[in-house]
Amino acid sequence: MYVCNCNGLRERQVRAAIAAGATRPAEVFKANACRPRCAKCVCEMSEMIQASREALRYAAE
Ligand code: FES
């Protein structure tokens, strides 16, 4: 499934960037050597980053 249609970024690529330390959508783009275009995907990326943080916080408790 694509998260970013403009750059052809799939969910697994976004998850890999987050796992590698991306904490903002801009870092997800950078990790995949691309830039935001229409930015429609930024909200979904932010939600994925937030969900990842919450999962880590929950796992640490
Ligand atoms: S869908 Fe990601 S920049 Fe357009």
Tell me about this structure.
By secondary structure, this protein is mainly α. The chain has one domain (2-60): Arc Repressor Mutant, subunit A (Orthogonal Bundle). 57% of the residues lie in helices and 8% in strands. It contains three helices and two strands. It has a two-stranded antiparallel sheet with strand order 1-2. Helix 1 (11-19) packs across helix 3. The protein is elongated. The chain starts with a strand and ends with a helix. The relative contact order is 0.20.
Give structural attributes:
61 residues, mainly alpha, Arc Repressor Mutant, subunit A, two-stranded antiparallel ribbon, 3 helices, binds FE2/S2 (inorganic) cluster
The SSE order reads EEHHH
Provide the structure class. Answer: mainly alpha
The strands making up the biggest β-sheet line up spatially as 1-2
- In CATH, what is the class? Mainly Alpha
Q: Mind describing the biggest β-sheet?
A: 2 strands, antiparallel
What oligomeric state do the depicted chains represent?
single chain
Can you tell me the number of structural domains?
1
Quick recap:
This protein is mainly α and 61 residues long. It is built from 3 helices and 2 strands; from the N terminus they run ββααα.
Per-chain topology:
Layout: E1 2-4, E2 9-10, H1 11-19, H2 25-31, H3 42-60
Antiparallel strand pairs: 1-2
